[in-house]
Amino acid sequence: MSYRKEEQKIQWKLRRIMWIVFAVILVLVIALSIFSSFVPPVTWKYYFYLPSVSAREEGELRIHCIDVGQGDCTLVEFPDGKTMLVDGGNGQESATTAIMRYLNGMKIDYLDYVVLTHTDSDHCGGLDTILQYKSVGTVCYPSAEEATVNAEYASFYTVLTTLSCQKEENHRGYDISSNDERYPYKVVWAWPYGSGTPNSQNYTGNDKSAVIWIDYGETEGLLMGDVTTTVQDRLRNEGAVGLLPDGIDITSVDLLKVSHHGALNGTSEDFLTYIQADKALISCGANNPYGHPSFMTMTLLNNNVDEIYRTDTQGTVVFTWGADGTHTVTTSR
Questions:
Q1: What confidence tens digit (pLDDT) does each residue in 61-88 have?
Q2: Distance CA 199, CA 213 (A)
Q3: What does the angle CA 133 – CA 137 – CA 143 come to, to the nearest 5 degrees?
Q4: pLDDT for the residue 10
Q5: pTM flag (> 0.85)
Q6: CA distances (Å), 133 to each of 77, 115, 129, in order?
Q7: For the chain, which residues score pLDDT lower than 70?
Q8: CA-based R_g, the chain, Å
Q9: d(CA 287, CA 283)
């Protein structure tokens, strides 16, 4: 056989192999597309690359600030085993997948409470998916009057209306407490006013966001949502004269979840001086277009808080409060 014929034979074999490989890849792509169309994502993609999260020890309360990029999602594990998910990220596939995988990594199929602090899309974006795939006991949510304020909230609210769980509109004084006397934790909504009260009409936008106080033994935390300094001034003034609901005392806070991802109008020096926070936590995305956290906010925090944690640089941050008053912090980066 001549050299030319041998070369043609080799080239023909290579082309054949290439066509076979191409055909196999095409079949796999088509099969995967068909599979994805008929099999819910919750049964496959939310179970890949699950994070390794250690089990909660007896008597611990843990606060997980899940890294969802530019958005917010906080999971609270109470010492009696109950769970509360606060906000659900911005709705981008990567953020929702991160939340679902985190919950699945912890083997959480039932959430005792799901809380949406306010209607912004970077807080409610993934909750429609979470509510569809996780069982829930109670959902706390903003005023139903805002059901069409944006597409993400509309989707959340549509799913919410189909659920048979208990539903509570966010309002001052709503509380959650332990049924186990060994672990006397308490959670109270410090803000906002309920939609049926006259004062509720005075606040709009981010200032309608829920502010949640968590107390466990001698340890306290404040989840500030996205409220501005206007609400913080109100809380500070009410606290000074004993008008905060249900005996809330915010003059010595162990953990402050900083408002509005560290935005310029989300934190005041007067408020930081009043609450005397030990640790601060900022949920924000790396190189986000809003410049969060602002330079001014970081300056205020550096001058008033002992430790600062950020999801954009440290990933998911977990705060653990022991029954004996011990505190530990772990990060995923």
A1: 999 999 999 999 999 999 999 999 999 9
A2: 20
A3: 90
A4: 66
A5: yes
A6: 19, 16, 6
A7: 1-10, 29, 31-43, 144
A8: 24
A9: 13
Q: Round to whole Å and give the CA distance between 88 and 285.
A: 14
Please give the sequence-ordered ranges of beta strands (E in DSSP) within 161-300, or none if there are none. Answer: 166-169, 175-177, 185-191, 211-216, 219-223, 255-257, 279-282
Query: What tokens appear for 286 in the block?
Result: 């790396």
Task: Please give the C-alpha separations between residue 198 and each of 44, 189, 195, 201, in angstroms, as whole numbers.
Answer: 48, 18, 8, 6
Note the pLDDT tens digit of each residue in 191-249. 999 887 887 778 889 999 999 999 998 899 999 999 999 999 999 999 999 999 988 99
* CB 88, CB 123: distance < 8 Å: yes
Tokens of 55: 């089990």
- Rounded CA-CA distance 330/51 in Å is 14
Question: Do 205 and 266 touch, CB atoms closer than 8 A?
Answer: no
58-331 falls under which CATH superfamily? Answer: Ribonuclease Z/Hydroxyacylglutathione hydrolase-like (3.60.15.10)
